[in-house]
Design a protein that fits this description.
This protein is α/β, with parallel strands linked by helices. It has 3 domains: about 110 residues, D-Maltodextrin-Binding Protein, domain 2 (3-Layer(aba) Sandwich); about 90 residues, 3-Layer(aba) Sandwich (D-Maltodextrin-Binding Protein, domain 2); about 70 residues, Alpha-Beta Plaits. The strands form 3 sheets. Strands 2-3-1-4-11-5 form a 6-stranded mixed β-sheet, with helices on both faces. A 5-stranded mixed β-sheet has the order 8-7-9-6-10, covered by helices on one side. Helix 3 crosses helix 4. The chain starts with a strand and ends in a 6-residue tail after the last strand.
Length: about 280
């Protein structure tokens, strides 16, 4: 069986299980379940701490896993990203009290508190900055208030919690993270079970990003319409019973669907419909 690690808790857990369910895999029904076997798909899922997943995969005990890009890099494990999953997005940045520093170039001799010391230490080394890194778990905003550090490095979403603590974000983002599929570094691409798993997840990503659009238009306006809905390869075009009219079907990006419908209507297309895509293979 293919052995796959899945986050057992945290912000990645729910979306990861939802995506796997959409891809046709059995998932746990209770949070207490640590292992789920899916005999129909010949897969065994292990629910582990997100921070540990890259380490388990790197050891070769598990074939692949789903974790955050930030957790993968921070672990220092011999594992690599093979597919981005487009959820769990976050930005990792430095923050400090106003006037303390303008950017990392001013960090020399300072102490930086973070829960991701591996990422921060590497970033400082790459920038040639001589600063100390102290590891703290949980909220690191209070590290400056208590005098443990002059700077913190943490995940930033809206920045509200930092502003409430009297801090400001400085410098460029250290890292932009999201959920990713990882495998042991150096593993080959010839495992058919892994390739099938990746195809299924890629199918979910496409299904979430596109809708199927159907509409009728006059034959003389077909080229204009096809220019708006080129599809992935080319649209399907069928003649209608009424002479001079054709029916068109094509996949279009979901986020652009409303604009495309407006543009189609302007050139005379009618009966414009969109439907969700639940699964696909490209």
């Amino acid at each position: 069986m293919l052995r796959i690690a899945v986050p057992n808790k945290g912000s990645l857990s729910g979306p990861a299980s939802a995506m796997l369910h959409e891809a046709g895999y059995r998932q746990r029904k209770e949070s207490k379940e640590l292992v789920v076997i899916d005999p129909d798909n010949e897969v065994e899922f292990f629910y582990l701490r997100p921070k540990d997943i890259a380490i388990y995969v790197a050891s070769g005990k598990l074939d692949i896993g789903i974790t955050g890009r930030d957790l993968l890099l921070d672990s220092g494990a011999s594992a690599e990203e093979i597919l981005a999953l487009n959820f769990g997005r976050s930005t990792f940045r430095y923050a400090t009290r106003p006037g303390t520093a303008n950017g990392p170039e001013d960090f020399g001799g300072m102490t930086i508190a973070t829960s991701y010391e591996g990422i921060v230490a590497k970033h400082l080394a790459d920038q040639g900055i001589d600063a100390s890194v102290v590891h703290l778990d949980g909220a690191v905003e209070t590290a400056i208030q208590l005098g443990v550090a002059q700077v913190i490095a943490d995940v930033v979403e809206t920045g509200t919690s930092l502003r409430n603590a009297g801090l400001e974000v400085i410098g460029e983002p250290i890292l932009t993270s999201e959920a990713v599929v990882v495998r042991r570094h150096g593993a080959t691409d010839d495992n058919p079970q892994v390739q099938q798993f990746l195809r299924r997840l890629q199918g979910v990503l496409v299904a979430r990003s596109y809708v199927m659009m159907d509409y009728d238009c006059r034959a003389e306006h077909l080229e204009q319409a096809v220019a708006l809905t080129p599809g992935l390869e080319s649209p399907t075009v069928s003649p209608l019973h009424n002479e001079g009219w054709v029916a068109v079907r094509a996949m279009v990006p979901a986020k652009e669907a409303q604009r495309i419908m407006d543009d189609l209507y302007e050139i005379g297309a009618r009966a414009i419909l969109t439907t969700a895509i639940h699964a696909c293979r490209l």
